[in-house]
Amino acid sequence: MKSGDLSASRLAVDVRQSDDLRLKLKQNPREGLKQVAEQFESLFLNMMLKSMRDTLPQDGLFDSDQSRFYTSMLDQQMAQKLSSSGQLGFAKLIEQQMGRFLPPDADNPTSPSSSSLSAGVAPVSALSSPETMRQALALAREQIAARNAARTASAIPAAASAESAAQVTPGASSSASSSGKDFVNRLWPHAVEASQATGVPAHFLVAHAALETGWGKSEIRRADGSSSYNLFGVKAGKSWQGATVEATTTEYVNGVAQTSKEKFRAYGSYAEAFRDYANLLQRPRFAGALGQQDGMEFARSLQQAGYATDPMYADKLGRIINGPTLRQALQG
User: Fold this and answer.
1) DSSP codes joined into one string, 138-175
2) Is 59 a catalytic residue?
3) pTM of the predicted protein model
4) 93-116 tens-digit pLDDT
5) Can 251 be counted among the known catalytic residues?
6) Which of 13, 218, 221, 301 is deepest in the core (most CB within 10 A)?
7) Tens digit of pLDDT for each residue in 48-57?
8) Which CATH number does the domain 175-331 belong to among 2.60.40.1180, 1.20.140.10, 1.10.530.10, 1.10.150.20?
């Protein structure tokens, strides 16, 4: 069995791994360096998985401190398995950069210099130097960025169609930015008014409207094609006495997307839509969202209150709130 396979098969929480790594560095610095690089990649992947987990609701019926503990152990094991596969390539780059600090004959255990390695002399200590690690990681990051840029540049002409190629041109990017600014400018005065009533930042409300309408491109329309001004996908329940419009929508039932025809509220203006939305947020059901100043928490509160059935709704809204399109539109 290869050393990489052995490492992947061990428990990520096995405390003996650090001792084995120190021994491997003394006996065979080149092979030990490879395992150290895999450990760094595993650490990076584990942090990434943890960040992904943090975006998901963790107060479900089956969630507890115990379930979260074992989930974190699963993520550690998964990160270790992925790093040992070598598919990401980060460990290989670290190994190449750190390998510069090894002597040319480090692969030969019988040479005088590798004898000194067994005694724990310079090359091993150099590998554990914080400055050396910072330099190696910085060089690795530069190589990853350069490699990704090269892949993107080569993939666009080969794989992109004429339509998708147009989307990456400066003109198309400028058009998208301009469209975002127009959308924000059109709604901003009404968003500020609703913000004063709810305590929620105005740009959170604009982001919510952007999610529901595709930045104004998919507004719910009446039978004659005119706008219903329904920016937030608010349905017309039994208590609604105003005008309505019927539209096709996607709902998730037990996690499965299904299309259906639903009745939605229709307004006379965007100002009216924002006032109704502000009244909606002031209901006890949405108490967690009212006055919320954190974008991601605002999005999660809406989802937890059942605003939408899409399991990724909070994530989508959070990305718009913290995304570059809204930020550029607000700066403009």
Assistant:
1) HHHHHHHHHHHHHHHHHHHHHH--HHHHHHTSHHHHHH
2) no
3) 0.50
4) 777 766 666 655 555 544 444 443
5) yes
6) 301
7) 888 887 777 7
8) 1.10.530.10
